[in-house]
Write a structure and sequence with these properties.
Length: 750
């Protein structure tokens, strides 16, 4: 688009966005810039220093790779800002009630011009601000206003330069003639850099006037140049060439330095720094620097264990040739890297660095030899220490994805996601896209990256009781962890098409409550087995998830379709193996069962398993029906025949219970439907849905029931329940305690 307005949720109301991050992406036409003006802002500052822990952040680029421009909080709208590209990402995060409103507009220039009207002759009335993005193949010619003629009086201009991480700026002052005076008190050209990496505060590096033309280098990928004049004598001004060159400063938990950072340069220097108390792991993934002899002779990559070129050497010496050096680690939180090679020498390298905790975390690579690894909290299986933070960066081969399977606990412990959590990010750093922040103790399913690298952070804070966590990281082909509330489905790779040979897939399935068992039903199967007992060839193995991993069932035959398997425990392991023979034939299997979570429940039908036939085996089925907003559910029985206890009057062998709300377990909303062959009267929910639970021991059963559900009328009790904001609350959390005893699953081969 070309213009628009962005506001905080429910603006102008002031709302609490705790545990939520809101992200907007603005894209304007190509070759335009985006001007952003804040019209209103009320975001509390976190401390007296004005640091913005609750903020609106404006970034250049798409959210996965965006570069921060500015971060705002407080109660006064900041000055307008301009992007350096046609894409901007806006992030909003506040743990306290806050609001903001901004407007944006596309423009073909990156200049914000202001004129200040005042009778005071000392007020600057010729103001210009520019933001310039430079890439490694271009440069920028910077001229003083009016050059080569004399510059104006009362000029106040600034130019902010940005380039990619891994680069810095070379400033070539070709010509300069600026009024000279002691300390450049009248007219002056000044050079600034960020006070710290990614800081929004600038520090002064150099002030120039007169006719000197020094050569200057920045230390980071950001540079600000200002030019100020008074109302007296004017000179010719200046002509400057600004070039992005290799080198500079990194302050990242993970990063890459490679030949891509070197463009027509013979010498490059980088300083990598991480947080205090951490070290830096270094891993070469590619090295091919050709030299005329077996000795490097200062040609290649030199690593130093510290901040400067005089710090101790890390490793044996300068690295060249094609032999990959071993993994190395600094003893401090700084790493100095230098690349030297004449332009006529072939050089290609890729160096990855990562922040390493002294007690946990690190950089790991999955490959064909190591397809998985375990990570865990410090002191595992004992509780981790207070105020602990661990970072792992895990990569896999190109064009693969990564799966993380948590070791699930059935402990009914309440977690506090602000006190202890595991954070998963789709990329190699804390700035990568957030996949999920998972509360500890973990009761979640598997998670997946979309890239071949994942960043994992484990945090404990405060002095509350902490819990342990353990997870297995895989190159994702098949398998995973499923935590079942109502049902789940498991498929073989590429289902319903053919799966590949030599698969070894393992799924762990847990019920949400320890008193529930799990029912598995095979819906479809076409496997080629080399034995009648399903011990070779392609087969599925179902086991109890106990210490002995007792075998419940082996499956491989067509006759196994519709077979039902009931576990004796609240967790099972499903293993699927395929050999390297008879590939090309399509084979697959599917697990399924009764019950489920239906939202929205507008109209439909539910019935006992295999209706109108007698329902087999003992089981519990539970349906949660949730009506659309402001509606209620009506359940009408079309068939009904449940078995009563012939020996004890009033008791049922098979039981049907209905709770007239999907979010409350209060007794006044629950009812037991009489067991008989007489159709019950229609049942209406009291709120926006209902829970239907059916229990049977599977012995001497009748045909069961069939019922239709519809929605009608407004929900009379809506005011007693909170609006669904998409965030957990005390009502929606009750859903997580409602489940049925079954899973759905699948598998397939080529």
């Amino acid at each position: 688009g070309t213009s628009g307005v962005i506001t905080s949720p429910r603006y102008p109301q002031i709302v609490d966005t705790v545990n939520e991050n809101y992200v907007w992406t603005i894209t304007s036409p190509e070759n335009t810039y985006i001007f952003i003006t804040f019209l209103d802002i009320e975001i509390i500052e976190s401390d007296l220093s004005g640091n913005c822990y609750h903020y609106v952040e404006v970034c250049n680029g798409f959210k996965q790779n965006s570069v921060p421009i500015a971060k705002y909080c407080g109660f006064n709208p900041p000055s307008p800002i301009v992007s350096t590209s046609n894409v901007v990402t806006i992030r909003f995060s506040s743990s306290y009630p806050a609001k903001f409103k901004l407007e944006w507009q596309a423009n073909t220039t990156s200049t914000i011009s202001k004129v200040t009207d005042s009778k005071n002759s000392e007020v600057e009335n010729n103001i210009c601000t520019h933001t310039i993005q430079i890439n490694k193949t271009s440069n920028y010619e910077l001229l003083s206003p009016g050059y080569p003629l004399a510059y104006d009086s009362n000029v106040n201009c600034s130019w902010t330069f940005n380039t990619e991480p891994g680069y810095r700026f070379f400033v070539d002052i070709v010509y300069m003639d600026i009024e000279e005076y002691a300390n450049c008190g009248f007219d002056k050209l000044q050079f600034f850099e960020p006070l710290e990496y990614r800081s929004l505060t600038w520090k002064l590096n150099k002030t120039l006037c007169g006719r000197d033309t020094p050569k200057l280098y920045s230390s980071s990928n950001k540079l600000k140049i200002t030019f100020k004049t008074d109302a007296s004598l004017s000179k010719t001004g200046f002509r400057i060439i600004v070039i992005a060159v290799c080198g500079g400063f990194f302050y990242e938990s993970f990063g890459v330095i490679s030949t891509d950072n070197v463009f027509n340069r013979t010498d490059c220097e980088w300083l990598v720094s991480v947080r205090e108390g951490r070290t830096i792991g270094v891993k070469f993934t590619e090295l091919n620097i050709r030299t005329e002899s077996s000795r490097c002779n200062s040609v290649g990559i030199t690593l130093r264990n510290g901040r400067t070129q005089s710090s101790p050497i890390l490793g044996n010496d300068t690295f060249c040739g094609s032999h990959l050096p071993p993994y190395m680690e600094t003893t401090s939180n700084h790493l100095y890297v230098k690349f030297s090679a004449p332009l006529n020498i072939y050089a290609k390298f890729n160096l990855q660095f990562s922040e390493v905790s002294e007690t946990c975390g690190g950089f790991y690579e999955l490959n064909s030899l190591q397809k998985s690894l375990d990570i865990m909290s410090p002191n595992y299986p004992q509780v981790p220490p207070y105020n602990c933070e661990c970072d792992w960066v895990i990569s896999s081969p190109p064009n693969t994805e990564i799966r993380i399977d948590f070791e699930v606990t059935n402990k009914q412990a309440e977690c506090n996601i602000t006190h202890e959590y595991v954070e998963l990010r789709d990329g190699g750093s804390i700035n990568s896209r957030l996949i999920k922040r998972v509360c500890v103790p973990v009761i979640e399913n598997s998670y997946f990256s979309t890239e071949n690298i994942i960043f994992i952070r484990f945090v404990t804070s405060g002095k509350s009781i902490s819990y342990t966590f353990k997870a297995t990281i895989h190159i994702n082909v098949c398998g995973g962890t499923h935590h079942v509330y109502f049902s789940t489905k498991i498929e073989s790779p590429n289902y319903p098409n053919s799966y590949s040979d030599q698969l070894d897939c393992t799924w762990k399935v847990y019920s949400s409550l320890p008193e529930f068992s799990l029912l598995t039903q095979v819906k479809d199967m076409d496997l080629i087995s080399q034995s009648t007992d399903c011990t070779s060839g392609d087969f599925v193995l179902i086991q109890e998830a106990n210490e002995k991993e007792d075998v419940i069932e082996r499956l491989c035959r067509k006759s196994d379709i519709n077979k039902e398997i009931i576990s004796n425990s609240p967790a099972i392991i499903i293993r699927f193996k395929s050999d390297q023979m008879n590939s090309g034939k399509d084979k697959h299997l599917l697990f399924s069962a009764c019950g489920g979570y239906i939202d929205p429940a507008v109209t439909g039908e539910i019935s006992t398993p295999e209706f109108p036939n007698a329902y087999p085996y003992r089981r519990t089925c539970r349906w949660v029906l949730r009506a659309p907003s402001s509606r209620r559910i009506k359940l009408t029985f079309t068939n009904y025949n449940l078995k009563a206890n012939d020996r004890v009057a009033g008791e049922c062998i098979d039981e049907l219970r209905i709770i007239k709300s999907p979010v409350s377990l209060e007794t006044e909303l629950g009812m037991k439907v009489q067991c008989s062959n007489i159709l019950p009267m229609p049942i209406e929910s009291r709120t926006m849905g209902m829970i239907v639970t059916f229990n049977t021991n599977g012995l001497n059963t009748n045909e069961g029931f069939k019922a239709t559900y519809t929605t009608y009328n407004e929900n009379p009790a809506q005011s007693f329940y909170p609006t669904d904001t998409g965030k957990p609350n005390k009502f929606t959390n009750l859903y997580k305690n409602i489940m049925s005893t079954y899973i759905n699953s699948h598998a397939s081969k080529k």
